[in-house]
Write a structure and sequence with these properties.
It is a single chain. Helices cover 25% and strands 15% of the residues. By secondary structure, the chain is α+β, with helices and mostly antiparallel strands. Strands 1-2 form a two-stranded parallel sheet. β1, α2 and β2 form a beta-alpha-beta unit. The chain is globular.
């Protein structure tokens, strides 16, 4: 999902929330300070907006 969106040049990436969020620590970056490491880890360009739904 991430690779396909980045390869297509999309500027906004919508990712699903993981089920059972009560049992998983961090299913999404908790704040802006974690956004850059999250994008680096998943090879998402810095200009792409990441949203979770």
């Amino acid at each position: 999902m991430i690779r396909a969106s980045v390869a297509a040049g999309e500027k906004e990436l919508m990712l699903p929330m993981l089920p059972y969020a009560d049992y998983v620590w961090h299913t999404e970056p908790p704040s802006g300070e974690w956004e850059k490491p999250f994008k680096r880890f998943y090879h998402i360009p810095e200009d792409v907006i990441v949203k979770f739904e």
